[in-house]
Design a protein that fits this description.
Helix content is 51%, strand content 13%. The chain has eleven helices and seven strands. The protein has helices at residues 2-13, 22-43, 47-67, 70-90, 92-103, 106-111, 126-142, 157-160, 172-178, 218-229, 257-269, and strands at residues 146-150, 164-169, 189-193, 196-202, 233-237, 244-248, 251-255. The chain has a seven-stranded mixed beta sheet with strand order 2-4-3-1-5-6-7, sandwiched between helices. Helix 7 packs parallel to helix 9.
Length: 289
């Protein structure tokens, strides 16, 4: 028995057990959160398929190393210097979206308040809300497709430049006429800033989220896409069903005219200074699957 005990002690004495302090626990927690968000981000973008391809390459290199395929390993070693730069180029759209998402986080916005757009504080009036709701209701009944983007903190100038500038006051008649079938301005999105329609026929980035239902077309994907890269509030009317939806922070929600009016009032009254500090209660509707 003593021999067995001494053998166990000799084995255990050779095992290094590091001392774990409070700082180490915090570091482990931070790494766990970062890995979780990285995996979640990867699954929602094209990077998921690319990473699977990279994993196959890594397995291939490991097999070559075990089998001692020196010629193949030499070729791969020469290509490794270019590999990192290639990954940055390949993943540039995803990296940009990730950085924009971090910068648009409410906590970061609350800490770093040097955004020049915060000085504008342009809010639309109650009359504009009435005009928007009336126009959306009319287009919903007639099944006229529409895409209305309401700019908030983040300026949308790069998307405004893709359309035709109007600089017109918002009105029900103008919105309905813009999205009427076979009119010159019906294709694309309308971008609002304060009480004015800045531009029409604007091109928006399409969402690449694989979790979005295949039943949604380009209009809905564009509405979700602009909400993923900005804090805009986007109203979408389906041309097929007449259903009213709203996109915010990458989420699509079904709306009724009454719910839409309520949410627009909340956006109107949610001041730019307090937006980062308050709990954004904008989604009272049912999230679409």
């Amino acid at each position: 028995m003593n021999i067995i005990i001494e053998g166990i002690r000799s084995v255990l004495s050779g095992i290094y057990i590091p001392r774990i302090g409070i700082g180490d626990l915090f570091e482990i927690a931070i790494l766990t959160v970062l890995i979780f968000f990285f995996i979640n981000w990867v699954q929602q973008t094209r990077a998921y398929m690319l990473l699977r391809g990279i994993l196959v390459v890594i397995v291939f290199v490991f097999v070559c190393y075990i089998a001692r395929f020196n010629a193949i390993l030499w070729v791969l070693q020469q290509l490794a210097s270019v590999g990192l730069l290639s990954l940055v180029i390949i993943f540039s759209p995803e990296l940009r979206k990730a950085l924009e998402s971090i910068g648009n986080n409410r906590i970061v916005t609350g800490i770093l308040r040097f955004d020049m757009s915060g000085e504008r504080n342009e809010r639309f009036s109650d009359n504009v809300i009435n005009e928007i709701v009336s126009a959306v209701s009319d287009m919903s009944e007639e099944k006229t497709g529409a895409l209305i983007v309401i700019e908030q903190n983040i300026l949308l100038n790069e998307y405004v430049e893709t359309g035709i500038r109007l600089e017109s006051l918002v009105s029900r008649q103008l919105l309905v006429n813009i999205f009427e079938h076979n009119t010159p301005l019906h294709d694309g999105a309308v971008i609002m800033r304060g009480d004015r329609i800045v531009a029409a026929t604007c091109y928006l980035p399409l969402s690449e989220n694989a979790a979005i239902s295949k039943t949604y077309g380009t209009r809905h994907r564009a509405g979700i896409g602009i909400s993923e890269v900005s804090d805009s509030y986007t109203i979408i009317v389906s041309e097929e069903t007449g259903r009213i939806s709203a996109a915010y922070m990458g989420k699509l929600t079904t709306m009724t005219p009454g719910t839409l009016r309520e949410q627009l009032h909340y956006v109107q009254n949610n001041s730019l200074k307090d937006r980062a500090d308050r709990k954004f209660r904008i989604w009272k509707g049912r999230d679409e699957k």
